[in-house]
Amino acid sequence: MARAVFLDRDGTLIENIPYLSDPASVRLLPGSAEALKKLRSLGFLIVVVTNQSGIARGCFPESALPGIHGRIGELLLREGAGVDAFYYCPHGPAEDGFPGCRCRKPAPGMGIRASEELGIDLRNSWMIGDSPSDLRFASNCGCPFVLVRTGWGKKTEREISPFTGIRENEKSGTMFFIADDLRAAAGIIEQAETGFSTERGGFSFIDPS
Ligand SMILES: [Mg+2]
Ligand SMILES: [Zn+2]
Fold first, then answer.
1. I want to staple 71 with a disulfide (CB 3.0 to 4.6 A). Which of 23, 46, 111, 153 is the partner?
2. Mean residue pLDDT across the chain
């Protein structure tokens, strides 16, 4: 089975611009291409999973997304990198009165769909993102998680305690790391893949209690 690194889009791979709809405004975060090349060289598929409630809110049409994702692919390709698949949720959050869906992170719908369509083993995959919903998505998919400090990451880091902040995750716990950016996150995954000593620290397990 294939393995993937699931990747949040806004604030993780590209600069976070709320309700981004213009391909010309896409900016890769520094080191992103290098990170994706490293992850691919480790044998991972790169799968972007992104919540785009701006579609449900009427901020931009769903038809704008292929242009945005095409632009991301183009910018990455210039540096010899790429994304294998983009998945997005066009729905709004239930807490804002929208009908619930199974694909809006933290629900695992996009991960499950990717696993079915691309033959991905979720238990041997990773998630990287900048928000609490990314962490909960990872937990719901059974993937270890790397929080990046780009985008909302620093706020997320302040708000969540790795030991008590996530009450709804599974009993098994989710392996949880923090990295400055996507490049550093790829470095952590590389270390984990090549076997690192737990004595070096740098990671913790989320305890559900
Ligand atoms: Mg984000
Ligand atoms: Zn959805």
1. 23
2. 89
